[in-house]
Amino acid sequence: MGPLVNIVLAGAAVWGLYALPPWTAGWLLLLAVAVANGALGVMNLLPGIPLDGGWALQALIWRATGSQYRGTILASWAGRLIALAFVFAAVVVPLLSGQRPDLITVAWTTAIAVMLWFSAGDAAAHARRAQRMETYDLDRVIQPAIAAAWDADVDQTLRVADAQPSQTATLVVVLDARGLPSGLLDRRAASRAPDLEGRQVHEFMHPLGAWIGVPHSITAPHLLESLTHRPKAAFCLVMEGSTLTGVIDLQEFYDELLAD
Q1: Are residues 160 and 126 in the same domain?
Q2: 217, 247, 216: which is closest to 233 by C-alpha?
Q3: Of 63, 66, 200, 46, nearest to 131 (Cα)?
Q4: Domain identity same for 118 and 207
Q5: pTM confidence score
């Protein structure tokens, strides 16, 4: 839509030129509008990211190959080639014809080329992260967990947690009186207590903070989509049906997913 709007505005300005006397203030203003919008519309149609034509190329490659990642990478490199073409046209072409490059033309084409080059690089980096997200295995960051009632016996709860078939320590999510997740049992504090007889899990818990519940079958892209509705969530509670099976520390998830 962007290039289309520019071209329509350029056409309207050209039509208006015929209604005004040449070289008047209004005529010159319409001429500037026509040239600026026409040039911007044509440039935006060039097939290289970040230009609109580049995203169209990305969509075509995505459709042809079935890979959004490949489409973005190839369209990003096309954008970089276009950036080099701008500099080539401003510097090399005049030299080949025996002319001296115009400094103003070199300045604005170089500015455009730099913008295109770095924007294309950002798009490629985002594509690499997107590919990593598509294939990311959430089991890497899921910590095994069980749920315990607010007034559950600490000693018995720890025995149940330690009996779970997992290679890492099982977390204990403490439920409030309504049965909703409220906190995490502090195992270290419980282990330091001189006597656990008669003690309840809520006495050794720290607040859970904002959380979101998801099924164990969820994928990384769908998890990120769900988190757009709970941007302040710090933990993700993983469920098998109505049973809590794990916890994801979302900061750990973000750090690993977005690592270069």
Answers
A1: no
A2: 247
A3: 66
A4: no
A5: 0.58
